């Protein structure tokens, strides 16, 4: 390869984190939130998502491939860093490490989550409905695992929006980057509330 | 008769290394305290009398220095865990014992002396200069607004000391990231009215291997830089410039040198 395309790959990684993966995550958490409105509301919403036209194409091109690219390139990026929060214990350096730790945890969580839900449905072993999730989350260990997964995802997306804004040169000044910290913190809290409320709805 | 100041000693622990490939080891030294000492004056004391804390004669310690006023960047080392200049690191302000180690982001030549060649190579790669050489006098260039000159002066204070590379988690032996300093120099030379005539070349250089995309926004560099250079603002600004350049390279016309 004569030409070095690292720049394009990194920009693609950054973009895919927001579009479509970040948008999908937001949509996913909001649809799940129907669980707070009762069993029927959730089943209806899940059924609507299942019956979208071109479902398999959407799943492959909007979710699976972009996520795989972001995840595998993300692992590579995460392991090329030499974290040094002992020397530099600033907020941003901790966020840098947290972005990488949550990313790696998400690989494990998402793999398990997809296996346990989407894959089981695909091979006909289960049906994607309220009961399936209530069964899974009835186990307190699994419930804890899912809470960690949701928080890791919302943190990773929110902090990812912050660094996306820098990576594309949108927030340049220290002041704008500071404001972006507060805004993305707000996004983290809001998405976490939506996600955790949905999880709680399956168990209480 | 021994006065209080004469009796006071400071301990300096140094991570030493005899050759570029040999194993590093720690050696402690005791130095007579004098008021207003800096780390280099402590090192000079050790060099005068290379006897370690155990009273054993040892090899004199090697380090780099030049200006002794924090403008050349040669004397950078890791002092109590933080990379900084040893000429401006005052003993009175440092926790005891003082621990000195070389900046291991760079190849160690010997003891505290490192080889910063990679930084100078990066400056060459990104064309961190204003090309005006030619076979005839080109005359005066365009004027630079005075306030812009004052702002650019701050960026020009970079002394290639390497502290920002040492501080960056993404500059290490697993990655080929050139680090913050050469990036900020691209912003400096692209801001210069004559330098801007080659700005696409510099942007394309930092869009290449080990370039700007390797930045992961830990923002340690801006905290560590002894010259207060706004490195993270430089990087974010160049992120925007390279975004534009990326689209331009693909969609732009055949002419795009200085537009
Ligand atoms: C829930 C799914 C995920 C979402 C919504 C997401 C979103 C994002 C976003 C928006 C960014 C910011 C990009 C930038 O800095 O410009 C990002 C960065 C990052 N992501 Fe993800 N991501 C997800 C999953 C993963 C996974 C599974 C990994 C695997 C390790 C990962 C690793 C990374 C890394 C290392 C970065 C930092 C890149 C850099 O600073 O250069 N992400 N992510
Ligand atoms: S930007 Fe600052 S820390 Fe980096 S090499 Fe230049 S003077 Fe040193
Ligand atoms: S000797 Fe020049 S910066 Fe210290």
UniProtKB/TrEMBL annotation, chain A:
One of its GO terms (cellular component) is membrane. Heme binds at residues 28, 70, 113, 156. Keywords: Heme, Iron, Membrane, Metal-binding, Transmembrane, Transmembrane helix. GO terms for molecular function: metal ion binding. Its main location: membrane. This is Succinate dehydrogenase. It is found in: Membrane. The keyword Transmembrane applies. It holds the Pfam family Sdh_cyt. Signal peptide: none annotated. The chain crosses the membrane at residues 12-36, 56-79, 91-115, 143-167, 179-203. It comes from the Bacteria. It comes from Chryseomicrobium excrementi.
UniProtKB/TrEMBL annotation, chain B:
This is succinate dehydrogenase. The keyword Iron applies. It holds the Pfam family Fer4_8. It comes from Chryseomicrobium excrementi. It is an enzyme of class 1 (oxidoreductase). InterPro entries: 2Fe-2S_ferredoxin-like_sf (IPR036010), 4Fe4S_Fe-S-bd (IPR017896), 4Fe4S_Fe_S_CS (IPR017900), Beta-grasp_dom_sf (IPR012675), Helical_ferredxn (IPR009051), SDH/FRD_Iron-Sulfur (IPR050573), Succ_DH/fum_Rdtase_Fe-S (IPR004489), Succ_DH/fum_Rdtase_N (IPR025192). GO terms for biological process: respiratory electron transport chain; tricarboxylic acid cycle. Belongs to the succinate dehydrogenase/fumarate reductase iron-sulfur protein family. Keywords: 2Fe-2S, 3Fe-4S, 4Fe-4S, Iron, Iron-sulfur, Metal-binding, Oxidoreductase, Tricarboxylic acid cycle. SUPFAM superfamilies: 2Fe-2S ferredoxin-like, alpha-helical ferredoxin. Its cofactor is [2Fe-2S] cluster; [4Fe-4S] cluster; [3Fe-4S] cluster. Residues 149-177 form the 4Fe-4S ferredoxin-type domain. One of its GO terms (molecular function) is electron transfer activity. The keyword Iron-sulfur applies. Its EC number is 1.3.5.1. PROSITE patterns: 4FE4S_FER_1 (PS00198), 4FE4S_FER_2 (PS51379).
